[in-house]
Amino acid sequence: MALNAATVFRDYEVDGVPASGPHKIKKSEVRAIHAGIDAIINAFTANGGLIYSSLALLNADLAHAANSMAWVIGDTTVANNGVYGKVGASGAGSWTRRADLPFSFIIASDAGAGTANAIVATTSIPVSSSALVWMNIFEANTASPVTVSFNGGSSLTIKTNTNNDVVAGGLTAGMIALGIVSGSTFRLLNDQVSSAIIAQAEAAQAAAAASAAAAASAAAAAEGVGVAVAVWPSGTLRTMKARATDTYCILDAPGAADPAGVNDSTSAFEAMVAGGVKCEITIGSFVLTRKLVIPDGVTLEGQGRGYEFGHKTKLLFAGTGTKEHAIAGATSTVVANPDAGAPYLADSGTRGNNYSTLDLTTNFSAAVILGKASGLKGLGIYPNFNGVAGYAGTTGDLSDDWDVGVWARNADWWNIEDCNVIGHWRKSGLLVSAHDIGDGKVPSNEIGHAIRCHFQGFRGISIRSPQTVVGNNWGFAGTDFVNCLVRGLSHQSGHLATSSQLTTPFSSPSGCLEISGDIMRGIQFLNSTFIGRDDISMFFDKCSEIRFDGCYEEGKGTFVGGVWLDNSDGARMVATANSVGLFFDANSKYVVDFSPGQTRDASLTGKRYTAAGVFNPGTHFDDDYSRRVFGSYIGDRMRKSTDRRIIEDENGVSQIIFDAAGRVQSNLLFSGTVTIADDAAASIPTPKNGGICIVTCCGSTENGNFPDAARSGAVFYDTGTAAFSSTKQFGGANFVAVNTDVAGTTGTDGNVTVGVIAGNLRVENRVGSQQVFRYAFMA
């Protein structure tokens, strides 16, 4: 067998016979054919490489030594192209063709000169069994077998790689066929790609899909939901089971939502929520430039939870929100700041002089407005500030101008979970309101629910309604906040909201929470945290039955004029007498001023405030003062010196009264102690207009020279008529009673004198030193 590439690298042991088994390539044969190739290359390069464009030019040049090598490339007679060797001495002899040109592949052109089943192709160099042929197909074959003729040569039968004839349609117009000349055949490198075979496969796939659909329909029918009864807005009938699984993804919405935050996604969000089903928002930052109104019963859900500004799904409200909303009657309540002019307000001008609730009667903008039973889950909602990068700075700049982040407006059963609604919202991160909006419905915002959320803005949370409701208002009963973080502005520069360091200072102090309005009751905060740098921790005006269970309140320090102010920590509880029934159970606090409603906490000593606070609710309860655990005992603590603890009977009549001085009053007993300096007098309030009081002089301490019989005794008294009287009933020689007031030096030196004025006994001490007196009213 003559050695060439076709024989050495043949597919089968017997060429063209698959039954003979795969051919194993022999290294000796590979070396033999490469030796011939090397000889040709060496001969060709030895004389510098002779190349001629035609055989005629080569034959005309005999001035070369014997065995010189030359190539003919480009002769119009294809068979003349090849590798030639010189025969004879220089100047004589001739050239003899020795081999084909050593190209790895040859390009053949099928220009349609033949037929679809008898192809005629041309090449620029002769085809051979040692080169791969690359050939285009002019037109699809219509029969089998198919032949090809190269350069007018004999016809070669086209075979597939597995030595089969090409089926009708196996060669398609425009395809490229790769193969080699193998004897009387042109063997393709791969099996045919048949459009007929593809069509058959596609038909089989369609049949399989139809079968699957039929099976699913049968299964649905078996489940009792096979009847198409639910109508999609497009009019397509769908099963109830399929309808119940609907979720509208933002990327499916018209309007080209852009998760990269480059383009405006408002239109896409508006189209999505209009679908009326659950809306899923992918990971990304979506820019909106108009408010987004969530219809009743629709929930927007992002991708999981996020901390601060690192939420996976961000809604960025850019530009200036349209100020088109107002709440008639939701006016501002103003309380003077008793520390106006303090050092912490040095860069605030007069803007920190008053605390005030929001005035919502002037138009404001809102980013997201919730309807009844609508909700948000797993979203970060921010006013745009160079995306959110601006919040990480330290300048006095503010974000884009939007007033309210999320507004639950007459939205019974609203629900917000795992959301961050934070940033420089000019009024409030969250606004919850109940008020008449002219839709014919009774204003109501009951049983709202927020869990694991972070609200921040000029107010973190505002819960408001008109101060005086005209008509009906069902209010907010059952609204709760669980495990939430609530903050005021908390500007990134570390300054107060009123500071001139801000590009646009706010007109009054920021705060975490405000609650005010008619029919404002039944709201509770559970295990939530309130932290603020500005003055207002919470502001209560017209409200009742507001509960805080297991919460934490904290005030922060501040920069003033660009410099950190030491000992500037502090925040205030602000409450008017219109607020009643404020309950604080199992709370803890740090540098938050509850005075004068409660004794100022020791953590405020030497901090922001020097004046008494502004916490003056009508009634409130704080169990920090009723179930307090001390080092070695459990007991009650009065909130302030004027407090009294009262036990009433079933008719509401006071029976036993304890006051902050330790005195106990009952129908038969009212007692206590009083310390009086020498030559001074003190008043003892009488529980009744008349009765008996025993006065005991105890000495310098309550258990000093007790008893001092000479200066102790009992008096009958009348403090309720114009003719006041105090009559000694028994006692020592230096115990005296008079019917007039005593001033400290009225009686005789050395005596204890008891006088009388309206509603009080007066005890004068002229013993010679400070004395402690114990008294007890017996009737």
Automatic annotation (TrEMBL):
Note the superkingdom of the native organism: Bacteria
What's the protein called, per UniProt? Pectate lyase superfamily protein domain-containing protein
What organism does this protein naturally occur in? Sinorhizobium meliloti (strain SM11)
* The organism's taxonomic lineage, starting at the top: Bacteria, Pseudomonadati, Pseudomonadota, Alphaproteobacteria, Hyphomicrobiales
